[in-house]
Amino acid sequence: MSDIVQQVVGAVFAIAIALGGAVAYFWGSNWLLDKVLGTGTRMSGREITRRDNLRSRIRPWLFLLPALLFLSVYLIYPVIETFRLSLFDKTGRTFIGFSNYFWALGDGNFQRSIVNNIVWLIVVPSFATAFGLVIAVLADRLWWGNIAKSLVFMPMAISFVGASVIWKFVYDYRAEGAEQIGLLNAVVTGLGLPPQAWITIPFWNSILLMVILIWIQTGFAMVILSAALRGIPEETLEAARIDGANDFQIFFGIMIPQIRGTIVVVWTTITIVVLKVFDIIFAMTNGQWDTEVLANLMFKWMFVNFDYGRGSTIAVIIMLAVLPIMIWNIRRANAEEGTR
Amino acid sequence: MTAAVDRARELPRPAPGWLARVDMGKLLAHLSLLLLVALWTFPTAGLLISSLRDKDQLAVSGWWTALTTSVTQGVTRVGTAEMQIEEGGRFVIRGNLFGTDTNKAIESFGLSNAAPAAAAAGQSLPMADGGAITVAADGGFEWVSDAAFTHTRGPRVFYVANIAPRFTVDNYIEVLTAAGVGRSFINSFTVTIPATIIPILMAAFAAYALAWMRFPFRGPIVALVVGLLVVPLQMSLIPLLSLYNGIANAFGAEDGKTYLGIWLAHTAFGLPLAIYLLRNYMAGLPKEIMESARIDGASHFKIFTGMVLPLSFPALASFSIFQFLWVWNDLLVAMVFLGAQESKLVLTGKLVSLLGSRGNNWEILTAGAFITIVVPLIVFFSLQRYFVRGLLSGSVK
Fold first, then answer.
1. Residue B377: how many CA atoms within 13 Å on its side-chain side?
2. What is the pLDDT of residues B221-259, one digit of tens each?
3. Is-above-0.95 flag for pTM?
4. Domains of chain B (ranges plus CATH)?
5. N or C: chain B end with fewer CB closer than 10 Å?
6. Smallest Cα distance from B200 to chain A, Å
7. B267 inside 8 A of chain A by CB
């Protein structure tokens, strides 16, 4: 019991230190800057201008310093270090060039992970986006649409592990003849088919794991796409109706082209989630029965085999897959910056 | 997609019978959406209902039958000779097949695994050790013999019982205490709250600088933040773990797995999104206010603390919700930086360990899972507005 008290007191203490520290740093450093480089009435005009310039050049960095420090230590340095480690052996001391990468190419588990990841990358973003779009369109037409949207959106708040337990229960298997308590097998036996231990059947088990992520991500797609659909000018839709277009023609001919940009954004965002997916596989199968994916494989090499070289190599490969999207995002942000 | 359009479409129509007036398209829309919503809610509903069911019922029947009576089979050893009492010249052993359970009712019973339905409740069966046994519907049995019992091993009685629908919070009590989820609940809060609060001020100052101050390298820093938004966490784990262990060794600690370590890690991992969201929001604040404040001689520090920070409340709220949900729901960072030690497991880690050790005890898993998702659900439903707004400004630009 006393360690719980200690732990809670520690947490409260940390919050106080963090807030107090932040206020003290920002207020203190700004005060110091104004004090050291302050201007007085007895100074020459040139000196005043010089000091004003200097202050306004230093101040942004005072604002940025803590954030930049954290980003450097926790993200920028590790990215560089992981690249370096991927060229070293298990212990991180002996340089072995690209040997880890060659090992990966020939490793059965790695190949399976790559194939699985590709299937994940195709299936999850497309189904999540499609379901999100359909639900957004339907919900916006019906009076109870907002309630429907709230319910579909809800899984976004649920952890991947929690979602895994929810779905593991849906996929639960009891021997033939026993009463099924999993929803899926209850439906299957209700149709007169034999129940299956779904999680152990290669390929289909991967699809069933993907269902979990689709279930979570559809709400995200729906919210974003719904907002985009509302942005389509009313007149455009009305004009099409007057021209005699039916609902399907309007959906495919007008709505989808109008929100194409948003669909791409949703798609890429979900793609990144998919590339990093770890918890679902870890909790459901831990890569057994041919369900291995890169993030889980990386965790195994890092935490089970303690081979930092190979673990880093797999991390770098995930990073390389994210890279095109990263570059695209940066270019988009830069273009926006230009228009501001 | 709205009333105006619908009206335009409905105007020219005549109105014959009521059937023709039912808009088939609309009906189809209602049904499709209903089906989709059912698909999306049933799994969670099943979990919640199951977690509240009696654990014996949960194990033998689907949650959709929660309101109907279910059937279970069981076996109990009745007493040995030591438990006999003499009553009016006869020897009797009494007891209850269900122990202390009260929600079951005997349908039939028997003396072998193959024949659990040899006799109905209230009937008697002759026993191999002498005498005959009678089992009542409530599970109470009476084994009566004219001769004294001598057996030393209680014979087994097999039964088929009906379980009346019963809802209970027993599963939750067991999960919170015996299974150790209560401790993990506290751990999750210990990790989440500081990890949500610490990054906010740091990100807000940085976001203000990137939105409203002019200085060299501003563009590249914004680009860097956008780039870091999508860097996979996997890239950070190994170097940071080595760094933490190195620091721990220098201080003579056995490993680098501390709450401080995970707070700082979550802070840093949340910073790119925080800076990005807040900068977008702050950049959208009216330029005129800023400029007039500058002309009045207010410093950047004053403008930030006095004007920008209060005005940015919606964006701060959005980020706080994101960060809270992300940290609360995280498994990977907690496993790497806090470890798998029982006393330090957060809820997600605890749930994974229960999946391993109690994989077939659905009463434990469903109640445990619901405890892990209930806090995010409360946050989500009460602050959905800010959550949606954050999502929109975070991805659609």
1. 15
2. 999 999 998 899 889 999 999 899 889 888 887 777 888
3. no
4. 70-164 (no CATH), 173-395 (1.10.3720.10)
5. C
6. 9
7. yes
